[in-house]
Amino acid sequence: xxxxxxxxxxxxxxxxxxxxxxxxxxxxxxxxxxxxxxxxxxxxxxxxxxxxxxxxxxxxxxxxxxxxxxxxxxxxxxxxxxxxxxxxxxxxxxxxxxxxxxxxxxxxxxxxxxxxxxxxxxxxxxxxxxxxxxxxxxxxxxxxxxxxxxxxxxxxxxxxxxxxxxxxxxxxxxxxxxxxxxxxxxxxxxxxxxxxxxxxxxxxxxxxxxxxxxxxxxxxxxxxxxxxxxxxxxxxxxxxxxxxxxxxxxxxxxxxxxxxxxxxxxxxxxxxxxxxxxxxxxxxxxxxxxxxxxxxxxxxxxxxxxxxxxxxxxxxxxxxxxxxxxxxxxxxxxxxxxxxxxxxxxxxxxxxxxxxxxxxxxxxxxxxxxxxxxxxxxxxxxxxxxxxxxxxxxxxxxxxxxxxxxxxxxxxxxxxxxxxxxxxxxxxxxxxxxxxxxxxxxxxxxxxxxxxxxxxxxxxxxxxxxxxxxxxxxxx
Length: 476
Description:
14-stranded antiparallel beta sheet; outer membrane lipoprotein receptor (LolB), chain A; Metallo-beta-lactamase, Chain A; 22% helix; alpha+beta; seven-stranded mixed beta sheet
């Protein structure tokens, strides 16, 4: 964990701009030893086992542990709140195919991505899997270390850049279009000759968890080198997105040119047709599973649709949407669901969740001149969303103490709130029905902290709502 945070602190500023070196890095004059891009790549290939050996690698089994890290923009260390996922990653580069067996407690999910088809198996049922996993397979196969150096060798536009100092250590930069799909720069440690980091920019328009960030900076850091048979490879891959840690992938074991069961990547013609005819070929956030609005009360609407915000609450002559959806599509769909009630217009948006993957539709509200209220925590995320879309930040109002939306019986009061895991959050209160909305609340402790603050403000709380459960009556 300390190593991950140290790496993240080193890289966070550098990751924000593709053309700038990481934090603490600076361009320096070339060292006395004359280098060329070809010599840098050749040296790395030789150290990793030799170009011929790496090119003969067609199959591999990785036993891995992925540590998922919460995307957040606080400057405090150790706030990534990781979760851990053991998985077995099996590949056949000739197909190309990827079989990833993921373990979640007693559940085991098997994802098979073969060429442009993605399927998943839970128990015995085979179902279509989102096209976002096809995108993930393509990116993963580029940044896997041995594939990466071979992609550099095969690129037709390789260029050697000025050396860069990272943490006081000299690194050589080599830039190229990798596997014909992304323009990236690989930083090779000048002393060891091994790749230390890959940097590129990419968007993930099919992934509802990443789409909001737009075209984002991505970094993959390599460390903890080990040798498996004839091949040497880093066993720790740290991925940063939007300039902050996203996940750490640790290779626990590797079996190169492993033997697989004949049906490891089997996709029948029926399964292929099932996938191509399904909604899985569309972006995740456009796959609306349930199309309904349920009224928790006459004044609180729960929007039941995958990828849409938690709901909406009545304020004076309109509705305030609780979140903006993953994208413009999500926002517009949520608005149409509200319209189906014959409801009055949307007059404000509360884009307050600190992890703003569900606030990507904020541009629709801003372009329509609808006020968008944010917390200190969510504003930091929203600024990155504007940056990823290459847009000027505008239309956001950070909530201050005593903020009120509306002036009639349905007015909503907003207050900043520090939660244990999300300082800089907020809470909203509707006096006419005693409803307290805490968008970042996850645990009973969060709710207890919010209710304590509400009592101090003289609010009588009869029900609470979170992004997960919008309306829950409580005792005074």
